[in-house]
Write a structure and sequence with these properties.
The structure holds 2 protein chains of 2 kinds. Chain A is an alpha/beta fold. Chain A has a domain of 333 residues: 3-Layer(aba) Sandwich (Rossmann fold), CATH 3.40.50. In chain A, the strands form 3 sheets. In chain A, strands 3, 4, 5, 6, 11, 14, 15 and 16 form an 8-stranded mixed beta sheet that branches. In chain A, strands 1, 2, 7, 8, 9 and 10 form a 6-stranded antiparallel beta sheet that branches. Chain A has a two-stranded antiparallel ribbon with strand order 12-13. In chain A, strand 15 and strand 16 form a beta hairpin. In chain A, helix 15 packs antiparallel against helix 16, helix 19 packs antiparallel against helix 20 and helix 19 packs parallel to helix 21. The longest helix of chain A has 27 residues. Chain A starts with a helix and ends with a helix. By secondary structure, chain B is an all-alpha fold. Chain B has one domain. Chain B contains 2 helices and no strands. The longest helix of chain B has 81 residues. Chain B is rod-shaped. Classes of the chains: A alpha/beta, B mainly alpha. At the A-B interface, helix 12, helix 13 and helix 14 of A face helix 2 of B.
């Protein structure tokens, strides 16, 4: 018999499966996305594929120091652990701030910087992110999702986890009166790919990195299956009402338990991540966030909050909050000691005080009200004077809108003192020096910018302009070509082509003038002489 | 005598005519009265209807006037609000309120 529903749904089955149905975390799309971290260094941060400015701007690092000082560390020397350290900027700014505020603690402390990727840690070292704090730093390859080593137990006065809980194992479930059903997925490709099918049969993810370029072509077919063996099944909600999707963050739950176990008496942990605070609606569809080639899923803080509310380690959250960057604090001591500070640092009042001036300033910039924007940015900077990400945004205003080139340079240099791997800060300095006529200084700054982020079309455009000024025409044309090749979004294409045309017209004009000069070299003055 | 008889007859005839005339007049009068009363009733009814319609119209027009008045006041308010200087002032006010709320909270610690 004809089934119209099946006829409509049939189209979703198109394509060649590269695997069988399995939990979403083990699907080809997720495994290949995880392999992206294996070979990557700081480039993902330098290109801003991962918005690390949100957690490594300096604000959270300063907050962590404030929490540490509030707890009045009982153990000397202090030991700190950071999991999923990524760029290393959080650690750098934490130690900067600690050195300034509590030099006696800083002098003897040890900060263990960990990451799941050895290349990431090597990259931190290559770019010298933590060079100033070499005596305090230990590095270690450590996968926060794997079992935690014995020597981490009750070993730290501070544990920091930013943007890592969203990369730990999850399940997507459908929970309703009919029970708990697990979403399972299989990936399909428009054309058959035997090599990928074979590679997926081998356990592990590292060998999947060569398939990253085709990952965007993977389509995900999903089905829901009843399942009995879910980790942390006690952390699932009661089965009632309509079938509702939920992210079951069992990896994050296990990791936070490990973090709690890693705290010394009086120790605290600060967990910051992108996440949701309320249960999903039945009509919602859960989707992954793609950061470059990697993928992450908003942490279900609603689940974490319920699970840890009654734990033996104090789990502190503000009374009210907004937005998607959520922070929680674990404290191995009497939670009432820290609650007020947690509420102040991560609660609604501060979130609004930090957000509103910046948002209003951006709005004013759109309306060309530069001076009001400057006033608002001043207020924002007064609250976060050591936030390099904000310093970058404001120096861009000083450069482009206010044309205060010297001030733009000073502020960008200050930003670089906080975050030495900010390519945009170097670009701002280069552009400001270019406008001030300091071409040699501009060349140095743009070279530093390109060393960090050679794939930036905006930086290539500026490099070409600087090269035109220094009459390095061939180099300018090469820079334009590189910029065009890298400008996949076509943001700078028009400006690059315009500059290329100007350079070519200039070349033709110079050649014509040379030719005319050569052809007309001999000048006969007889006619004039005869008249005389 | 014959003349008297004749006269009486004629008198009676005239009387009869007069009575008939009177009866007719009374009937006509009654009919006219009834008709006029009917017209009066109809007029009253029409008047009532007209008054009711007028009252409804009055209510409707008053409502419209009020709404136009409100629109007029709102548009003035909106014009004032959309004035870039007012937008700036409102934005700054919101920002200052947020900063003050945070300062107060910080001060309480």
């Amino acid at each position: 018999m004809l089934d119209p529903v099946a006829m409509v749904a049939k189209g979703a089955r198109k394509g060649y499966p590269v695997e069988d149905f399995q939990p979403i975390w083990n699907s080809a799309a997720m495994r290949i996305a995880r392999s992206a971290w294996v070979d990557c260094g700081l480039e993902v941060f330098l290109r801003k594929d991962v918005p690390y400015g949100a957690t490594s701007s300096g604000r959270l690092s300063e907050d962590a120091v404030q929490l540490l000082l509030e707890t009045g560390p009982k153990n000397q020397p202090c030991r700190f652990l950071e999991i999923g350290s990524g760029s290393g900027i959080f650690a750098k700014l934490f130690l900067d701030s600690l050195k300034l505020q509590a030099p006696e603690i800083y002098k003897t402390c040890t900060y263990i910087v960990t990451d799941g990727s050895a290349i990431m840690l090597e990259s931190q070292s290559k770019y010298g992110v933590l060079a100033e704090h070499a005596d305090q730093i230990e590095t270690r390859v450590f996968d926060a999702g794997a079992p935690w080593p014995k020597d981490f137990e009750a070993a730290f006065d501070g544990v920091f986890a930013s943007y890592i809980l969203d990369s730990l194992p999850i399940d997507i479930l459908s929970v309703g009166e009919s029970g708990v059903r697990q979403m399972q997925a299989r990936c399909v490709l428009p054309v058959k790919n035997d090599a990928l099918e074979d590679a997926l049969k081998i356990p592990g993810n590292n060998h999947l990195a060569p398939f990253l370029p085709i990952a965007k072509n993977l389509q995900i077919q999903t089905r829901h299956f009843e399942t009995a063996n879910l980790p942390y099944a006690d952390a699932l909600p009661m089965k009632k009402g309509d079938d509702t999707p939920m992210v079951h963050c069992h990896g994050a739950l296990a990791c936070v338990e490990n973090i709690a176990n890693a705290l010394r008496s009086g120790g605290f942990a600060m967990l910051s991540d992108y996440g949701t605070l309320v249960p999903r609606e039945p009509s919602e569809q859960i989707e992954f966030q793609n950061f470059g080639a990697s993928a992450a899923l908003a942490v279900n803080f609603h689940q974490l909050d319920s699970w840890f509310a009654e734990g033996k380690t104090a789990y502190l959250k503000p009374v009210s909050e907004e937005g998607h960057l959520i922070t929680r604090v674990l404290y191995n001591g009497d939670g009432s000691d820290l609650f007020e500070l947690v509420d102040l640092l991560f609660g609604l009042a501060r979130q609004q005080a930090l957000r509103l001036p910046v948002e209003a300033a951006r709005e004013m910039l759109r309306a060309n009200a530069f001076e009001t924007a400057r006033q608002l940015y001043s207020k924002a900077m007064a609250l976060q004077p050591r936030n390099w990400s904000l310093a970058e945004e404001v120096s861009e205003l000083l450069l482009l809108s206010a044309k205060d080139y010297k001030d733009a340079i000073s502020l960008a240099e200050f930003g670089l003192s906080l975050n030495p791997i900010g390519p945009n800060l170097y670009r701002i300095i280069a552009e400001a020096r270019y406008h001030l006529g300091d071409i040699s200084g501009a060349e140095d700054a743009i070279a530093a910018c390109l060393r960090l982020s050679g794939a930036s079309p905006q930086a290539r455009l500026l490099q070409a302009r600087i090269q035109v000024k220094s009459e390095h025409i061939e180099g300018a044309l090469i820079s334009v070509a590189k910029g065009l090749a890298m400008d996949k979004e076509a943001d700078q294409r028009e400006a690059l082509i315009q500059l290329q045309n100007e350079i070519l017209v200039n070349i033709s004009q110079n050649a014509r003038e040379d030719l005319l000069a050569e052809v007309n070299r001999t000048r006969n003055l007889d006619a004039l002489t005869l008249r005389l | 005598m014959a003349d008297i008889d004749n006269i009486e007859k004629r008198l009676i005839k005239v009387e009869g005519k007069l009575e008939k005339l009177h009866t007719d007049m009374v009937r006509v009068n009654n009919e006219v009265h009834r008709h006029v009363t009917k017209l009066e009733d109809r007029f009253n009814r029409n008047l009532k209807d007209q008054n009711r319609v007028n009252a409804q119209d009055h209510k409707f027009i008053t409502g419209l006037e009020n709404r136009f008045g409100k629109m007029d006041r709102d548009s003035k308010k909106l014009k004032k609000q959309s004035d870039p200087r007012q937008v700036d002032r409102n934005t700054m006010k919101l920002v200052d309120q947020a900063l003050k709320a945070y300062d107060q909270k910080k001060g309480k610690r």
